[in-house]
Design brief:
- Helix content is 35%, strand content 19%.
- It is an alpha/beta fold.
- The protein folds into two domains: 137 residues, Rossmann fold (3-Layer(aba) Sandwich), CATH 3.40.50; 294 residues, Dihydrodipicolinate Reductase, domain 2, CATH 3.30.360.10.
- A hairpin with a 3-residue loop joins strand 12 and strand 13.
- The longest helix is centred in the last third of the chain and has 21 residues.
- The two termini are 28 Å apart.
- The structure holds nicotinamide-adenine-dinucleotide.
- The site of nicotinamide-adenine-dinucleotide has 22 residues, from helix 1.
């Protein structure tokens, strides 16, 4: 299926940290695929800016190698790669000093959209904003894209928001959460608000509970030192899972417009109840023959940082009163799965014999693997054996339903970077949303830190600590199986 390509205005996209892991693995491959699809106008340029002492030719070589590694062979057409690399320039720059800034100022054009992508560590976000301002290369046609983590707690997020606000309007600040760029996440809104079928049932009267899972198979690996100061709550729940929760639980916005959507998401965060410690399970992975344990990765023998967390949340409003939301995320788990499961209630009365069985409908929104959705519906088991009810999935895997292979489902970064150029902030977090999320997160972290709660050890390749299963079992529910 050929997707529609909407042209964008000419731009200069400046990638600070243009030689780093994220730039090489995600940002530049995403830009290449947009170039391949014909969306990059003739006068669009990409400028890598980083500490390495390179010239533009050296940078093109580096990115050529990255494309070889991170773009599928099918999408790598030699002439197109060559033409794309010609659009790249490079400036060696020090984000905290003065080196390179004059060169960058000479290179960027005043009359086109300028998008500055902060693909650097969070300590450099504020210095970069200051340097851009001092060097006079901001202005109304400019935007900044800020990577995660956006703060470490409420105070640091507020301080960063305040610094950015000195130099940029909120409409120029794009706080990126790549989960929001996933096709399925946008489809969650299309399904909820583009159909009559779901929204009337989308409330506590008909929905028993919601599960949101982001499970990874990888460990913290070499990032142990960094991760130990963060943990699953800060690294995943405060941002990614919170955003998924908001989109699932929010009221219908009056239109699909950045502030209308973000206003509704903000209301969800503000309606989150404080979480009781008995509704939180934290874990740390043990080691096995393949990899060391979390403690060994973190190099802190006394670390109480969690590599896994599961929690039960309540949203205090009319729509969700009595419907819990269960969240879980962790590393070194059985499968790499990101999904939202909406479990409906069983019909209020069964007209069938007791041995026919009963089932509840279930909508699963899969972010990975195989982006798509399926809806479990109850039908009669085929055959002459009387009325027995079974569940069958109505499956809409995008790859099958839309005739696309996995390669063609646009990567989240493709969509989000083009939204920056188009000036559309709908899928980016607003400053007040980030602060509200930290306001909810901080007391929970303070609680377990004060109590000195230790995370439970869990075996790699499992669904986390046993207690996480119990979190649902004690409510008469169960997590959807984590299938590799
Ligand atoms: P990285 O360490 O691989 O790259 C850092 C980049 O910053 C390099 O290009 C380096 O030259 C540049 N840099 C460092 N100090 C500099 C200075 N003083 N002046 C100019 N440039 C300087 O880091 P990364 O993994 O690419 O991550 C970048 C950002 O993206 C981080 O905030 C990270 O949290 C975030 N992020 C990364 C990933 C990922 O998968 N790597 C995913 C999500 C978010």
């Amino acid at each position: 299926m050929v997707s529609r390509v909407i042209p964008v205005e000419p731009f200069d996209l400046i990638i600070f940290g243009g030689t780093g892991d994220l730039a090489r693995r995600k940002v530049l491959p995403a830009l290449y695929r947009r170039f391949l699809s014909g969306q990059m106008p003739e006068k669009a340029r990409i400028i890598g800016a980083a500490r390495s002492d390179l010239d533009s030719a050296g940078y093109r070589k580096l990115i050529g190698a990255a494309l070889k590694e991170f773009v599928s062979e099918k999408a790598r057409k030699p002439d197109t790669v060559k033409a794309f690399l010609k659009r790249l320039e490079y400036v060696s720059i020090d984000a905290t000093g003065t080196d390179g800034w004059q060169d960058l100022a000479k290179l960027v054009r005043a009359d086109v959209i300028k998008a500055y992508y902060f693909s650097v560590g969070p300590a450099l976000f504020a210095p970069l904003a200051e340097r851009l301002h001092e060097n006079g290369i901001t202005g109304s046609k400019c935007r900044i894209v800020v990577e995660k983590p956006f703060g470490h707690d409420l105070a640091s997020a507020r301080a960063l928001n305040d610094t950015l606000a000195k130099y940029f309007d909120e409409a120029q600040i794009y706080r990126i959460d790549h989960y929001l760029g996933k096709e399925t996440v946008q489809n969650l809104m299309a399904v909820r608000f583009g159909n009559i079928l779901f929204e009337p049932l989308w409330n506590a009267q008909y929905i028993d509970h919601v599960q949101i899972t982001v499970a990874e198979t990888v460990s913290v690996g070499g990032r142990g030192g960094y991760y130990d100061k963060s943990g699953a709550m800060r690294d995943m729940i405060q941002n990614h899972l919170m955003q998924l929760l908001c989109l699932t639980a929010m009221e219908p916005p009056s239109k699909f417009d950045p502030d209308a959507v973000r206003d509704e998401k903000l209301k969800v965060i503000r309606a989150l109840q404080p979480v009781d410690s008995s509704d939180i399970v934290r874990g740390q992975y043990a080691g096995d023959e393949d990899e060391p344990s979390y403690i060994e990765h973190s190099e802190n023998p006394d670390s109480i940082t969690e590599s896994f967390i599961a929690m039960k949340l309540h949203i205090a409003n009319w729509r969700w009163n009595g419907t819990p939301f269960y969240l879980r995320t962790g590393k070194r788990m059985r499968a790499r799965v990101s999904e939202i499961v909406v479990r409906f209630k069983e019909p209020p009365h069964s007209i069938f014999d007791a041995d026919a069985g009963t089932n509840a409908n279930q909508l699963t929104i899969r972010l990975q693997p195989n982006e798509g959705m399926d809806l479990l519906v109850t039908i009669k088991e085929p055959g002459p054996g009387g009325m027995r009810l079974i569940e069958v999935p109505l499956d809409m895997t995008f790859a099958d339903a839309l005739g696309q292979d996995d390669d063609e489902v646009a990567d989240a970064y493709e969509r989000l970077i083009m939204d920056v150029i188009r000036g559309n902030q709908t899928l980016f977090m607003r400053g007040d949303e980030v602060e509200a999320a930290w306001s909810w997160t901080d007391p929970i972290i303070e609680g377990w830190t004060k109590r000195g709660d230790k995370p439970k050890l869990y075996e790699p390749g499992t669904a986390g600590p046993e207690d996480a299963l119990m979190l649902l079992h004690k409510d008469g529910r169960r997590w959807r199986d984590l299938k590799p």
